[in-house]
Amino acid sequence: MTDEFHKPTQYSGDKFDTFEGGDDPEQILRVAHDTAHALVDRARATDDPAVVERLVAYTDEHGVDALSELWARSSAKSLAGALWRIYLIRLLIRQDPDNISFLFQRGTEVLRTIDAAVAGAPMPTGPDEITELADEILRGLFRGDFATALDRAASFCRITSAGCVSVAGDVELITPDRANDLTTRALRLTLTGDELSTCARLDRAGNLD
Description:
Residues 1-20 are annotated as: Disordered. The chain is mainly alpha-helical.
């Protein structure tokens, strides 16, 4: 990872997995695998909470570009792919905590599943609570409870997706463009949630690499 800091990249929440990788797919996968494992192993090998906090806040200083070069082209069913998606979720939340917390809160009201309990956000969930949830999930990854953290992130995605669908229904007749954007976001969040749930199962089986 580069030592040169730059302004964190800003982009809208609908741009999951749109970064271009390098020209050598085999080299990209090898570097992604090695860096993902090195990062997780480093965090788990230390008792210093400051190390974990620096890893959690990495994109706040460096931007997401540095991570995209390493992990964006990795399989969704890999350690690097899981880390990439978790960092993107955190970035999505931190760039628009008011809107995301609103969609999440709506999702908890319409989704009749255990996902709200799994995600573990305080109720009601405002901007501060949703931002802290994103950081807690990343801390969980680095403190060794990887599968649980992935399940929490997957539940966040499913809840927020349900909120998007619900709000889209409210505004469809008034602002159809916004309704379409919300529906598209819901589909992407659902896909990401499914991918993270798969990664959690693979991790519990010792097969997430």
